[in-house]
Amino acid sequence: MAKNKRIAAARSKVTHGQAYGLDEAISLVKGNATAKFDETVEISLNLGIDPRHADQMVRGFVSLPNGTGKTLRVGVFARGAKAEEATAAGADVVGAEDLMEKVQAGEIEFDRCIATPDMMALVGRLGKILGPRGLMPNPKLGTVTMDVKGAITAAKSGQVEYRAEKAGIVHAGIGKASFDEAKLIENARAFIDAVQKARPTGAKGTYLKKIALASTMGPGVQVDISAFAG
User: Fold this and answer.
1) Separation between Cα atoms, residue 216 and residue 120, nearest integer Å
2) Partners of 70 in the beta sheet?
3) In the 8-state DSSP scheme, what is residue 178?
């Protein structure tokens, strides 16, 4: 009953169908994050695309200026000096055949997977496991690289991945409810800007159709997109 009262109280503060300015929307989301843990603030962008077509796929990484508040576990497929570089740079799991065997056994102890180019023949065997989880290293995303240290540093410093789902929606966590409003606003703007710049060649008509914010346990708040339309 207490939970239902909390949800009802949160929803009563948000006017259904109303689009709020980004600053006010962030304030509402923070105010409604009343769970007993530090909720994640999530952003969703509804795009005018059909991801089933290759020329309309939207995917990439963006480094949020204030981080995400989450500790990302990084796994690296590398050998020799590059494996040592990965360990020194703070990778959580490093290996080659041994790491492949762990993944095949269901031991996936990382949230981001990086590989050196020479390891892709090995990593390719894990496509059916890593692919559906969005963990397959990709040179276009900078996760197949010789700059192992740089990729790990970027991942650990608040870099988030975004990828359009079937309905054309892109979403990501942009921080914690405990963040200052100014930091959440800055992160939100950085994310929206990155997705706008990633507009695919096949996208026709209105690209950015809707923006919504919510905390993990809070109601969604629609954001006025007029300031971002263009």
Assistant:
1) 36
2) none
3) T
Q: What does the domain layout of the chain look like in residue ranges? A: 18-68+158-223, 74-157
Radius of gyration of the chain (CA): 19
- CA gap 22, 225 in Å, rounded: 9
List, for residues 86-139, the tens digit of each pLDDT value: 999 999 999 999 999 999 999 999 999 999 999 999 999 999 999 999 899 999
Q: Select the CATH number that applies to the domain covering 74-157 from these four: 2.40.100.20, 3.20.20.140, 3.40.50.790, 3.40.50.10330.
A: 3.40.50.790
**Which residue bears the tokens 């239902």?**
4
Residue 2 has pLDDT above 80, yes or no: no
Of 36, 133, 32, 128, give the one whose Cα is nearest residue 75.
133
DSSP letter for 144, please. B
196/153 Cα distance (integer angstroms): 25
DSSP E strand stretches across the chain: 19-20, 40-47, 59-63, 74-77, 93-95, 112-115, 159-163, 169-176, 208-215, 221-223
Residue 41 has which token pair? 């603030």
pLDDT category of residue 46 using cuts at 50, 70 and 90: very high
Q: In what order do the strands lie in the sheet with 40-47?
A: 19-20, 221-223, 208-215, 40-47, 169-176
32: enclosing H helix or E strand: helix 22-32
